[in-house]
Amino acid sequence: xxxxxxxxxxxxxxxxxxxxxxxxxxxxxxxxxxxxxxxxxxxxxxxxxxxxxxxxxxxxxxxxxxxxxxxxxxxxxxxxxxxxxxxxxxxxxxxxxxxxxxx
Length: 103
What we know:
Elements: H1 2-18, H2 23-38, H3 49-56, H4 62-70, H5 73-84
Helix pairs in contact: 1-2
């Protein structure tokens, strides 16, 4: 599961850097993406996979969204919220950048 998570972060960071965004903009966009991916406001009224997919569409190309759905990373937060009967609100999202050229 950790590999899937790291893979999705790497893909997201690659796509964002290819678009010419500044480093800080890329981190902000990646944070927004992860918040949408994992946030569940009301465990009694869970969003569907399609609703989350629609919100994530501006961030990823269709093929990467389909990969996320196939790997069940989009459904992870929904399943946890449903099973544990809790709302999920990511409060602190941090990224570790392994870019030796950035000092």
